[in-house]
Design brief:
Blueprint lengths: L4 E4 L3 H13 L6 E4 L3 H11 L2 E3 L3 H6 L3 E4 L4 H11 L8 E4 L5 H13 L3 E4 L2 H8 L3
Parallel strand pairs: 1-2, 1-4, 2-3, 4-5, 5-6
Length: 134
């Protein structure tokens, strides 16, 4: 069984990451995208192909085995995870590449693990360096 991946956030780094996931990730299922500004996710989905846009965070998380987020700041992460944690996340893996403080990362990780999920922090700064063309 292959994992369903959902990606939350469609900023510049997230767009590069999702484009690479679709092109080089050997995904068996289309990538699910969600952004607070839905039109941004829809436009990006058309550009990268093999993806679709969820109507809500709840829909995106419900369908996912892996939820990868790359959000702008502590406030965006806090708001997003408050909504996520209101759903059943038992057994789901959360990967966070957001631009947030280590304290916020640890706070969110504790809540996710306490609710039965798993959490991996992968700061976006390092991902962006890896995605730069040589």
């Amino acid at each position: 069984m292959s994992a369903q991946i959902t990606f939350l956030g469609m900023g510049g780094i997230a767009q590069a990451m999702t484009a690479n996931l679709v092109r080089h990730g050997n995904l068996e299922k289309p990538l699910c995208l969600f952004n607070r500004t839905k039109s941004r996710a829809e436009s990006h989905s058309r550009n990268i192909g093999r993806s679709y846009v969820a109507s809500s965070i709840n829909e995106a998380v419900l369908e996912a085995d892996i939820v990868w987020s790359c959000l702008q700041d502590d406030e965006a992460v806090q708001t997003t995870f408050e909504e996520i944690l209101a759903t059943d996340i038992q057994g789901k893996l959360f990967v966070d590449s957001s631009s947030i403080t280590p304290e916020k990362t640890n706070q969110i990780a504790g809540k996710v693990v306490g609710a039965g999920g798993e959490f991996v922090a992968m700061p976006g700064t390092y991902v962006a360096r890896a995605l730069r063309p040589e």
